[in-house]
From TrEMBL:
It comes from Acetobacter fallax. Catalyzes the transfer of a methyl group from 5-methyltetrahydrofolate to homocysteine resulting in methionine formation. CDD domains: CIMS_C_terminal_like, CIMS_N_terminal_like. This is 5-methyltetrahydropteroyltriglutamate--homocysteine methyltransferase. Zn(2+) binds at residues 648, 650, 672, 733. The gene is metE. 5-methyltetrahydropteroyltri-L-glutamate binds at residues 21-24, 117, 522-523, 568, 612. The active site is at residue 701. Pathway: Amino-acid biosynthesis; L-methionine biosynthesis via de novo pathway; L-methionine from L-homocysteine (MetE route): step 1/1. The keyword Transport does not apply. One of its GO terms (biological process) is methylation.
Length: 759
């Protein structure tokens, strides 16, 4: 030792929505016309200020700016570089708020941009749109303005930019296609201009987010990184760049990253701890390494002593290191302190954004001053880690034994689909082209009000149940009148398709304020799976029984599948995700069998999020799909041949996973197809998918009533790809977000379309 060493703490981004979702409220009030722009701007400035001060006061040496966003940071980047599609009639000057929000949400006469998932998170970004003759210009100074805003508050921040290569790779080319990377030479001067303006303001470091470096990249994309960073470091030598990668290992892109002439490299050591050795071996001595050691994607408290065992040798070997979360803290809730209603044991195992910054500070102090300087904090972390290993709330031997004893018989129906189908058709006796819906019916203001009243205690248990029974009964009657063949109970008792089950399963915890941004002002509060999962008592059987008692037509049992429950939760990090998924699968299996025992002839197990769980790298797909399919089969395969298993997936990209869907061995699958004009059924036809399919015949995301003829045309298109006796008729997805006066004519037309085909 002896030589001067530096260990600093950085955050790469902080939740922007506010500890009380202040930004959500301010945005929605502004959008509704009930407040002025200045009010929104004031709230936003207040949030930025408190966020900066909070991070500084927690001990962060490097605090980001520019990570705030009114909607989405990718959209901010599009605006910054003037990538504003022609339909917004932008005049070429500074992009105003009206244009920005039109791009985000649409406006009268103009559609919004397309939204898609940010890597493998549940955050959604607006896909940049380029044209082959796209030019770029500095059209938004938000990044520059926010740096100065912080500086006026006395905080010298490290601005964050989404790097040019990832930005282009996330975008799409309209009008005739082409490769967005071809636009790089035109984009780089704009980035250089921003960097030189930063330099003029005295900025020393800029965080350049390039998470695309953890993806499978073409040689052209790798070359683009070299081109971009050679250009930028030469154009603006005064600003040092922290090339920031996250969400996985650099792996085959590591050599590319290490060869870039940047001053710092951030690596994700939570998702990919194994890459540390290679990074250390390959990094130039003067490269500042930023080590993402605290999980920015999950809510668990870190095991600080264990981390220090790994970090101490590194800090001795390198002159300068930065400790950081693995990625922006955008993906975790703000502050655990507010969760006063949480089980104290569970709370002792958790860390939200605020707590994570403190953890980093403890690590940094231990590395510079020795572990004794933070003895108390380390002991508390040790205690939490030790308690998680043995605590009875986490470890349930019965559950573990059940998963360990899992066998192939449990994951297989007793007969092949061909045999099952004969029995099912005989017992169900449905008409050709049977009609059904995906499960939910409108969650009207009255339904929401009743649920809120019940949660507050102003509506009694009995009063709430009575309300739900009436709503269910009305919906069952209405479905009969509408002429649907297979009915649903409507899901009025469910707040959310995962939370409803999580609240009834052991091993799950729920927060009060644990909101995480999903898109724009939309936030979700994912359940926390902290322990072994089991199902103490039936969850849906009573509602199913009640609904079935009201009709002679078949009533579908309605469940959420294990993979979807897993993918929409914060999942424990002390065992493989697959293990947790199998535990959930057995809990759902118990429910499936109880529904069957109660008399359900059809049970639908929704796997809306199965595709979302695909790993970022193709090499990981096979393994994921294997256990995901296995989990679905554990959940669904306990039933008799005559019991019909349905599943539902509300998306339309099936080409990559069609074999896995086949392997799920459901009897009926309903999918989203209306917008793709049934073309995606080619995947099913090409694969010779044997089972029955309900290709959605109308887009439930739109309030428009589709005409009978339109749906007949779609069904005719389906008939060219599938056999008639494979086809079901249903909407794309559940109807909970629609109004009854939209649902009623749409379903009436859908039934008429099915009848026209039968005719
Ligand atoms: N059964 C659910 C519903 O209809 C399915 C929702 C979904 O797939 N997202 O609401
Ligand atoms: Zn759906």
């Amino acid at each position: 030792m002896g030589a001067f060493r530096s260990v600093s703490v950085a955050t790469l981004g902080f939740p922007r929505i506010g500890p009380r979702r202040e930004l959500k409220t301010a945005l929605e009030t502004y959008w509704s016309g009930a407040s002025e722009l200045t009010t929104l701007l004031g709230t936003a400035a207040g949030l930025r200020e408190s966020t900066w001060l909070c991070q500084r006061d927690l001990g962060a040496d490097i605090v980001p700016s520019g990570d705030f966003s009114f909607y989405d940071h990718v959209l901010d980047t599009s605006v910054m570089v003037g990538a504003v599609p022609a339909r917004y009639d932008w005049n070429g000057g500074a992009v105003d708020h009206a244009t920005y929000f039109a791009m985000a949400r649409g406006a009268p006469g103009v559609t919004a941009g397309e939204m898609t998932k940010w890597f493998d998170t549940n955050y959604h970004y607006l896909v940049p749109e380029f044209t082959p003759d796209q030019y770029f210009t500095l059209a938004g100074t938000k990044a520059l303005d926010e740096y100065q805003e912080a500086k006026r508050l006395g905080i010298d921040t490290r601005p964050v930019l989404l790097g040019p290569v990832t930005f282009l790779l996330l975008g799409k080319m309209s009008h005739g296609g082409g490769d967005p990377l071809a636009l790089l030479p035109r984009l780089l001067p704009v980035y250089a201009e921003i960097l030189s303006r930063f330099a003029a303001m005295g900025v020393s470091w800029v965080q350049m987010d390039e998470p695309a470096l953890v993806l499978d990249l073409s040689d052209a994309a790798r070359a683009a990184f070299a081109e971009a960073y050679t250009y930028l470091t030469q154009a603006v030598p005064a600003v040092q760049l922290m090339l920031t990668t996250y969400f996985g290992a650099l792996a085959d892109n590591l050599a590319t990253a290490l060869a870039l002439p940047v001053h710092g490299l951030h690596v994700d050591l939570v998702r990919a701890p194994e890459q540390l050795a290679q990074v250390l071996e390959g990094a130039r001595p003067d490269l500042v390494l930023s080590l993402g050691v605290i999980d920015g994607r999950n809510v668990w408290r870190a095991d600080l002593s264990k981390l220090l065992d790994h970090l101490e040798p590194v800090s001795l070997a390198r002159r300068e290191i930065v400790l950081a979360p693995s990625c922006s803290l955008l993906h975790v809730p703000v502050d655990l302190e507010r969760e006063t209603a949480l089980d104290p044991d569970v709370a002792s195992w958790l860390a939200f954004a605020v707590q994570k910054v403190t953890e980093l500070k403890v690590l940094a102090v231990a590395l510079t001053d020795g572990r004794d300087a933070v003895r108390g904090a380390l002991e508390a972390s040790d205690r939490a880690a030790a308690s998680r290993q043995v605590h009875e709330k986490i470890h349930d031997q019965t559950v573990r034994a059940r998963v360990a004893g899992m066998n192939q018989t449990q994951a297989r129906r007793s007969s092949s689909f061909e045999t099952r189908r004969v029995q099912q058709h005989e017992s169900l006796n449905l008409p050709p082209f049977p009609t059904t819906t995906i499960g939910s019916f409108p969650q009207t203001p009255e339904v929401r009000r009743a649920r809120a009243g019940h949660a507050r205690g102003t509506l009694s248990d009995a009063g709430y149940t009575e309300f739900l029974r009436e709503e269910t009964a009305r919906t069952v009657r209405w479905q009969e009148e509408a002429g649907l063949d297979v009915l649903v109970h409507g899901e009025f008792e469910r707040n959310d398709m995962v939370q409803y089950f999580g609240e009834q399963l052991s091993g799950f915890a729920f927060t009060k304020y644990g909101w995480v941004q999903s898109y724009g002002s939309r936030c979700v509060r994912p359940p926390i799976i902290f322990g072994d999962v089991s199902r103490p008592v039936p969850m849906t059987v009573e509602w199913w029984q009640y609904a079935q008692s009201l009709t002679k037509r078949p009533m579908k049992g309605m469940l959420t599948g294990p993979v979807t429950i897993l993918n929409w939760s914060f999942v424990r990090d002390d065992q493989p995700r697959s293990e947790t998924c199998f535990q959930i699968a057995f809990a759902i299996r118990d429910e499936v069998l109880d529904l069957e025992k109660a008399g359900a002839a059809m049970i639908q197990i929704d796997e809306a999020a199965l595709r979302e769980g695909l790993p970022l790298r193709r090499a990981g797909w096979g393994r994921y799909l294997q256990w995901a399919v296995e989990a679905f089969r554990i959940a669904s395969s306990g039933v008799a041949d005559v019991t019909q298993i349905h599943t539902h997936m509300c998306y339309s990209e099936f080409n990559d996973i069609i074999a896995a869907i086949g392997a799920m061995d459901a009897d009926v699958i309903s999918i989203e197809t209306a917008r793709s004009k049934m073309e995606l059924l080619d995947a099913f036809a090409g694969y010779a998918y044997p089972a029955e399919i309900g290709p959605g015949v109308y887009d439930i995301h739109s309030p428009r009533t589709p005409a009978v003829g339109e749906m007949v045309t779609l069904l005719e298109a389906a008939r060219t790809r599938l056999k008639d006796d494979q086809i079901w008729v249903n909407p794309d997805c559940g109807l909970k977000t629609r109004k009854w006066d939209e649902v009623e004519p749409a379903i009436a037309n859908m039934v008429a379309a099915a009848r026209a085909l039968r005719g």
